[in-house]
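Protein in question reproduced for absentees:

***
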Amino acid sequence: MPKIQISKIIRSKRKNIALVISHDATLIVRAPMRTSLSCIEKLVAEKGAWIERKMQEFEKRPKAAKKTFEVGEEFIYLGKEYSLALTNGLKIEITEDLELLFPRVFLWRARTRMLDWYKKQAQKEIAERTRIISEKLNLKYSTLKISNAKTNWGSCGPKNSLNFNWRLIMAPESVVAYVIIHELMHILEKNHSRHFWNKVATVMPEYKQARKWLKENSKILTLE
């Protein structure tokens, strides 16, 4: 078996080494601060078969085609597919008829305009949904930001600051709720122990379905 390439090593104040296969089927290693490179490489070699299998699984998952911004092209928003329609307006909008109205004047930098729209929608929708859920659970977070993270859908910092990947706004509402609940539960449990997952299940008993959907469909949640 050829040597497995490590895409990135992220060191933090964690206790154990974690092997993460990213959305582009590359290996990211999360390790304690003082973990040596030789120790990391030894673990990667030992887990080689598992890593290869997971990478192959990721490669087989559905991928999104590069957007061309032609009339009728589908764009995903909160789990629904919207058909692109060009307009003479100056605002990107979605309709109840599942159309995404896109101004012709934006076509010369279409991807940038579309990305900005998704990020603004993510900021508005995810922030509001997080506020509602956190109030129901009586959990307080310090700040909420929308990120460009390539591997994480969300994170909860040591001071209870929340970060969410802008691409999450493309996922179904149940998946968005799962990620929000997941990060809010980290306010109580800064780990992924059985105790943590029990807390998630108490709030969202069907969380495994949402988690599975996200793992299997992560590659289609993009503008590439």
In short: The longest helix spans residues 110-137. The chain has two domains: 6-60, 111-220.
